[in-house]
Write a structure and sequence with these properties.
Length: 470
């Protein structure tokens, strides 16, 4: 393999002659064999958008020649299209607050710009990674800005699938609205409800999750680009400082604004904590829904068995005919993953010192993972589970008729103590609640029929009340 020699402040390394990355990227690759996972492709594209905005702003300020700026912009456009992804060799988790990721971008863009200008890769007298590509920038304003842009790019597919989930749950709530079932508290029979009401409640909580995510996105529109190292905007021109964020906004299509306090925006990462916590809340809700689906479909002969989940694959290598609720199971596992990521993100955001937080790489690694894994989980939940759910209507009705939970409705008429006695007798003897009430002449047949109408009991405004005799 042919190589070229490149030198940095640490020393000299051999670089493959065809490589677009340089010495600082290779040194970082060797230093951080952490996860085996490279930088997120969308993060790389956003690094290129920032470098493009910087080149345009520096050109317009007169600090970067039009020739170099044009080559840098062209190289950035290629990266934005997804080219040269393999040239990003640094690990997703790295020391140095993201300097390795920033320099990987600087070197790839510089070498591609050199090539576009007719030079040989590694001849940084033509375009230099630091002096030209990184002009008026610091890792400390580039990396957090790229992180925010990446989350903004990754969130729409998740929100879109959450909206489809909300719609699918709402459709099931309508389809199942006529089906009576027993409500349960602490896994024990409570009072009657409609199966559609269960699914409507699921749709409602997902609707709140969508609203939270839409609101949390606003945390990401304020960026510290232009603040450079710590917020003083050292090494920037007045023109660059006021124009680089509007230029980036034009490139990305997002309503980006430069932070009023660049020191605050550089050292504090609470916006990412807000996003992560919102994702965690959504994960908790998704897992709760999936836990319910597994319980409601359990059995199917020896469990609750009120609904059927679509069979997706064989459930056992030894038990013939066994089908497991694999889709709700994987969604819950993703929820655990997101909750764990949130803990990491929280601790990393807290760990910043003075004017910089050095732990942005691990924040972004886990935050990007949370968004992408949740997107896949929700997509699978909609396609492979919710849309195919069916109800066992007769079984739901049978469970209602056998339950003593309907005795709750008798309390206003015969009192709690007598209702409890009736319930205990029913459980002991197997006799139905209505038959026991009639046997003891506590209520008439007509009164009992009206009071114990389980469908009426599921609608608050139609619930019957009474006055205790005596």
């Amino acid at each position: 393999m042919k190589t070229r020699m490149e030198t940095d402040s640490i020393g000299t390394l051999e670089i493959p002659v065809e490589a677009y990355y340089g010495v600082q990227s290779l040194r970082a690759k060797n230093n951080f064999p952490i996860t085996g996972t490279p930088l997120h492709p969308t993060f790389i594209q956003n690094l290129a958008k920032i470098k493009k905005a910087a080149a345009i702003s520096n050109r317009n300020s007169g600090t970067l020649s039009a020739k170099k700026a044009r080559a840098i912009v062209l190289a950035c456009d290629e990266l934005i299209k997804g080219e040269f992804q393999d040239e990003f060799i640094v690990d997703g988790i790295q020391g140095g607050a993201g300097t390795s990721a920033n320099m990987n971008a600087n070197e790839v863009i510089a070498n591609r710009a050199i090539e576009l200008l007719g030079g040989q890769k590694g001849d940084y007298s033509i375009v230099h990674p630091n002096d030209h590509v990184n002009m008026a920038q610091s890792t400390n304003d580039v990396i957090p800005t790229a992180g925010k842009l990446t989350v903004l790019d990754l969130l729409p597919p998740l929100i879109s699938w959450l909206k489809k989930l909300e719609d699918a749950l709402m459709e099931k709530s309508k389809a199942f609205d006529h089906i009576l079932k027993m409500g349960r508290t602490q896994l024990e029979d409570a009072v009657p409800m409609r199966l559609g009401q269960s699914f409507h409640a699921y749709a409602s909580v997902i609707g709140r999750d969508i609203a939270r995510l839409e609101k949390a996105k606003n945390e990401l529109y304020t960026v510290n680009l232009g603040g450079t190292a710590i917020g003083t905007a050292i090494n920037t021109s007045p023109y660059y400082l006021t124009h680089v964020v509007p230029t980036l906004a034009s490139i990305t299509g997002y309503p980006l604004v430069q932070a009023d306090d660049l020191f605050d925006a550089t050292e504090n990462l609470d916006g990412f904590v807000v996003i992560s916590n919102t994702l965690k809340t959504c994960a908790v809700n998704l897992s709760k829904i999936c836990n319910d689906l597994r319980l409601l479909s359990s059995g199917p002969r020896t469990g609750i068995g009120e609904i059927n989940l679509p069979p997706m694959q064989n459930g056992s290598s030894i038990m013939p005919g066994k089908i497991n609720p694999v889709i709700p199971e994987v969604v819950t596992q993703v929820a655990y993953h997101v909750i764990g990521n949130d803990t990491t993100i929280t601790m990393a955001a807290e760990a910043g010192q003075m004017e910089l937080n050095a732990f942005e790489p691990v924040i972004f690694y886990h935050l990007f993972s949370s968004v992408t894994s949740m997107t896949g989980a929700v997509e699978s939940l909609v396609k492979n589970c919710i849309l195919g759910i069916t109800a066992n209507e007769e079984h739901c009705s049978e469970l209602v008729s056998k339950s003593v939970g309907i005795t709750t409705a008798l309390c206003p008429y015969i009192g709690y103590q007598k209702a409890a006695s009736i319930a205990k007798t029913s459980l002991k003897t197997g006799a139905s609640i209505p038959s026991l009430v009639l046997k003891e002449n506590l209520l008439s047949s007509g009164e009992l029929s009206r009071i114990l109408d389980p469908y009426a009991l599921t609608v608050p405004q139609k619930a019957q009340t009474g006055t205790l005799a005596g």
